[in-house]
Structure formats: C-alpha cells, structure tokens
Amino acid sequence: MMSVISNLLALLERWGTRPERRPGLAARWHSWIAARRAPTVGLSLLVAAFALLRLVYLTADPPLGITTSRVFYTDEGWYARNAVAWVLTGHWHREGDFNPAVNIPVWTILQAAMFRLFGVSLYTARLLTVAFFVALLVLFYEFAAHYVPRWAALVGCLLLATNYRLFAYSRLALLEVPMMAFLMASLLMAARARRGHWRLGVALSAGAFACAYLTKTTAVIGLPAVVYLLWLASDGLGNKLKGLALWATVLLLILYVHYVTVALPHYPDYVYFNRLNIAGRQFDEWRPLAVLQHVAQVVWLGLTLYDPLLTGVVMGVTLLLLSSRQFRQCPAVRVALLGGGAMMAVMLTVTYHPTRYFLPLGVPLALLAAAALSHLHNARGGWLLRPVFAILLVSVLAVQGHAILDYLARPEYSFVEMCAQVRQQLAEEE
C-alpha cells in the first residue's frame, strides 16, 4: 500500500508545467503553485484526498443502500475463504466446500500474500481493494493523459474518486475494483505498444488482461477496447496482425496453463462455479416484448444504479457525439464507447443485475467526461455548452462528495461487533 501511495505522490509531483523563472531571481518557495499550475495542483490534491478517505473507518459497515436487496453484504467472505484457509491451514482447497479460487485464482493469491504480511483480518482484506483503487486512479490518469490535457484527465480521476457507490464498493474486499485496475493496465500497455519495445508492451497488455479475467470473468468487456488500441498502435496491416496475434497467443497461453494446472485437477469446483455464476443467470426469453423490456431495464439500471446525476453528463456527451466529428474521432472517446457498449452488452445477456456489476461503467463515463471537457475547451462555440457541462460536473462532484463525508461522519460497526460476540461466545463454551 505504501509503495502505491509513494508512486501516486511521485506522479503528483510531475503533474503540471514548471513555473517560469525570471532571469537572475531565485525562485520563491511558493513558485510551484503558480497561477497556471494551481488548478492542476488543486485537482491533484482533491483526487488524493478523496482516494485516501477510503482508509478512514475501513472496517465500518458498508452503506445498506448500496445493494438492491437492501440486506447486509457478506460476499467478502465468499471470495476470501480460500485465501484465509491457505494462510491458516496451509491448504487453499477445501473438499466439499465452495472454492472460488479454482476459477479466479489471482485474487486468492494476492489476498493470501496480504494475509501473510499483515495477518488475517477484515482490515487487511479491504486494504488490498483500496490499494487497487489507488492504482486504478494512477493508471486511468496515465491513459487519459495520452489523449486529453492533464487537467481534464484529473477531472476524470475526480469523478471516479468521488462517486459514492464506487467509494462504498472500493472499501470492500470484492472483485470489481481489482478487475477494473487490471483492465486499465491492459489498456495502458496496449496504448503504449507503439513505443520502443512494442512486443513487451503487447505481452504485458495480454498478461494484465489475463489477470483481469482470472480475477473476474466479466473482464471480457475490455476486449473490444484493447483490440482497437492494438490495431491503432501499429502501422501497416502486417504489423497490426502481428501485434494482435502476439497478444492473443500470450493470453491463451496463460489461460491454458491455468486450466491445466488448476481447473482440471479440481474440475467439479470449476464446473460448479460456472454453473452458479454464469450458466444459471443467462437471459433466455426471446419474445420481442420481453427483449425490449429487458433492454430498457438494463439501460435504466446502468444510468441510475451507478450515479443518477451522471445521466445529465451522458446526455451532454451524446449531443457532442451527434454534433462533432472531431469528438467522435478521438481515440479516448472510442475506447470509452467500446468499453461502455461491451459492458451493457454483457449485462443484456444475464438476468442478474446487482449494483456492483455496473461499477466498471464508471471508467468509460469518466473518460467521456474528460474528453468532452477537453473538446469544449478547444472547440469554437464551446462557450455555449461549457457552463452547462461545468455546472453538471460540479453538481455531480458536490452531491457525491457530500454523500461520502456524510457516511464517514456516522460509522457503524454492527458486523465487527457481531463477530466479536460470536467469538466470545465460542470461547466461553470451550
């Protein structure tokens, strides 16, 4: 965690441009916050502050309203069980029990490493997710800054850092945030594959994508965007096909090794997990009216479950897509549309739509908002839409940020207290 924070701080030091010095005069101590750099520094500090707020009261109960079921959330133990067993007993596999590590080993390996370093606890389990969220912000910034100004990339980071639902889930030991971070790393490596040792970039992109898939299979939503970036990275049809072939080879090799060494020896567990989480939730009602209702439901959930206020931002971006060819041709916009479209397409194939399934939508939405701000800043006539878009963004940030601070002002520990009572009762019975 400290290394991630150190990297973030080092990145913050590089943001912005160096203030001009007048010849013959020594720079004053406050020259680093010159007027032209102040907005970037301010945004950086806001992003860092809201990101690190996740460490405050980390073992507190999550908000009850973050799930559609309105019941207390217990999936953290569902996915941590193999890591806990591995550290406490030396064996990760539990015969006759649920073993998610067979299908999603990356999360189990990382959690087990954290438990060995810091001990088995709820705080340690959640700390790993917070570290992944900080990494997600850094990776998002590095990726977005390829295509938009740094201040716009920071606005995108701020949208992610202040989103209330993403805040709540990035404090829980669940799979969505680590998957999003691995996907972001894959996109960044693919975007950089044109530089220098392109084969290494392609291989690293495939490795990061494999880690995302072996953390949560929903990572397939990133496939169209990665393929687009790899296609964009090379000149000439031959080089493009070579890059794609190398990426696919590395990915399939990693997945094959996992299948042979982990899945096949525990095949009943592998099949049970797929049947429970994939096969049993497929949409299979193909009457025209049922399909239309299902599509409307998924789109509505995507716009409301993640953040209702972002609906206005989505409408503004849609206007830009329809009116500006330059905006449509921006690679960041196309990556966001491919990622968001793939996310919604996957959601259309299933009937189970919990709130956390829509969390990955936050990345393409933040990327679209950053690209829209950059476009409006530079476009002729942008002054007409600039104030409206700015008001929408400020409203989103204010409402979401207030919700986060309000939640942290009244932490509750019913789950931790219940566990302590059960532990005490067991000790008394012994």
Give a structural overview.
The chain is mainly α. Helices cover 68% and strands 0% of the residues. The chain contains 19 helices and no strands. Helix 3 packs across helix 4, helix 5 packs parallel to helix 8 (176-191) and helix 17 packs antiparallel against helix 18 (386-409). The model is unreliable at 1-6 and 8-27 (pLDDT under 50).
Structural class by sheet pairing and helices = mainly alpha
Annotation field: number of helices: 19
Helical content band: 55-70%
The span between the termini is 38 Å
Q: What gross morphology would you assign?
A: globular
Integer average pLDDT = 83
SSE succession: HHHHHHHHHHHHHHHHHHH
Runs in which pLDDT lies below 50 for 5 or more consecutive residues are: 1-6, 8-27
Q: Quick one: biggest sheet?
A: none
Beta-sheet strand percentage? under 5%
Q: How many whole angstroms does the radius of gyration measure?
A: 23 Å
Compute the number of strand runs.
0
Keywords:
430 residues; mainly alpha; disordered N terminus
